[in-house]
Specification:
Rossmann fold; globular; alpha/beta; 16 strands
């Protein structure tokens, strides 16, 4: 169920193993049509723009893509018909012969997953980086052998439907309010995150943030060996988490530090785009939570013109208002959440609701002065206006480069 990246990868993998595969997606977009053209065989049947009962009945199993809600029609029908529903993550796990290091948390997952892969590579080990990072597990599993380590980014959505998923090392980076558009409350969100270690035993490892009181308290209920990490001088929380994993894997701290020094960052996370007339443009499209935007603002010393907004995930934007008062000169708001954001910020700074990202970039540049930074840090998901956060970030970069060429 679902024909985005993970659905496409899973469908092709299962077909290659001899399964009869049918795909249903209630959306019908050019990107999904493109994915349909990349299916391995015309024998893979698909429907777009609807969910029909015929696609569910008489099936042996339903595989759920992570973005699909638990109350969607095919999931409800599968439950009514007694058909098991599992996650794409579980399919990858069943077929994976390698040791899996799984990383979850509200923020920092992609950076930590990437750095874990880099310290393994620096030690000369084979590693595959995949999962919620944008490279589906099912798309890589056929290339993985028993000597490979898998550095796997895992979201709460993916964990909801696991059964036997059991990483050798599970990492929980942090926890704060998020995805309250999907979960009824923060407790339900935490329960989904906790599933990352539910099948672990004494031969496995659980890495927890010592400074996060919600996560550190989980140590008493875990069956795995618990290792704590904490921010310290010279190490930010993400680096400290990677260092803890390196210790478990027998990787020297010195080698980890060298990897950190050489790390250039990841696309769409505090990514420098260009400087135009002394104004810096930074792409932080991956910042889909308020906490991510807090981190971004705290790491920019210059005055900021902020572009934010998108599809609201139940966030409380007032918690960033005081920081914005100190750091942000003006905010341009886009997407479905712009009215909610405007209400949260109007007492502390000037805001302007705009129709699209192109208008926001143009107005932000006109407002900025030499020495300012124009920052795209949305605090929201992208699905109201863009295919995903990568699409949003790339469109931002394209708009900035177009602006630069015109001047």
């Amino acid at each position: 169920m679902g024909l985005a990246r993970s659905g496409l990868a899973c469908a092709n993998l299962l077909y290659s193993l001899g399964a009869k595969v049918c795909i249903t997606d209630n959306r019908d977009t050019p990107s999904l049509r493109e994915n349909a053209s990349r299916l391995q065989s015309k024998d893979i049947i698909f429907e777009l723009g609807r969910h029909s009962e015929d696609f569910i009945k008489d099936k042996d199993m339903v595989v759920l893509s992570p973005g699909v809600a638990n109350d969607s029609l095919p999931v409800v029908l599968a439950g009514r018909l007694g058909i098991p529903v599992i996650a794409e993550l579980e399919v990858g796990w069943i077929l994976c012969p390698a040791s899996v290091i799984a990383v979850t948390g509200t923020n920092g997952k992609t950076t930590v997953t990437t750095l874990i892969a880099k310290i393994l590579e620096a030690q000369g080990r084979k590693v595959c980086i995949c999962g919620n990072i944008g490279n589906p597990f099912c798309g890589e599993v056929a290339k993985i052998d028993s000597d490979t380590f898998v550095s796997l980014e895992v979201s709460s959505f993916q964990l909801e439907r696991i059964r036997e998923f059991k990483p050798k090392i599970a990492v929980m980076l942090n926890f704060s309010n998020n995805h309250l558009d999907r979960y009824k409350d923060v407790c339900e969100y935490l329960q989904a995150k906790k599933r990352i270690y539910m099948n672990q035993d004494k031969n496995d490892h659980l890495v927890l943030n010592q400074n996060d009181h919600i996560l550190s308290a989980l140590a008493k209920e875990a069956q795995a060996k618990v290792t704590f990490f904490a921010e310290e001088k010279g190490l930010n929380p993400n680096q400290a988490a990677v260092m803890a994993v390196g210790l478990i894997l027998g990787i020297e701290a010195k080698l980890c530090q060298e990897v950190f020094r050489n790390f250039q960052g990841i696309e769409h996370r505090m990514e420098f785009v260009a400087e135009i007339d002394g104004i810096r443009f930074v792409n932080d499209s991956k910042a889909t939570t308020v906490d991510s935007a807090v981190w971004a603002l705290r790491n920019i010393s210059a005055p900021v013109i902020l572009i934010c907004g998108g599809r609201d995930k139940g966030n409380d934007y007032t918690i960033i208002a005081d920081l914005m008062k100190d750091k942000v000169k003006e905010a341009f708001l886009i997407g479905e959440a712009k009215a909610k954001m405007s209400n949260a910020f109007k007492s502390v700074l000037s805001t302007q609701e705009v129709d699209n990202l192109e208008e926001a970039v143009r107005l932000a540049f006109n407002k900025a002065k030499r020495g300012y930074t124009v920052l795209l840090s949305p605090m929201c998901s992208s699905f109201d206006m863009f295919a995903n956060y990568e699409d949003r970030g790339r469109q931002f970069k394209k708009l900035v480069q177009t602006l630069k060429r015109k001047l």
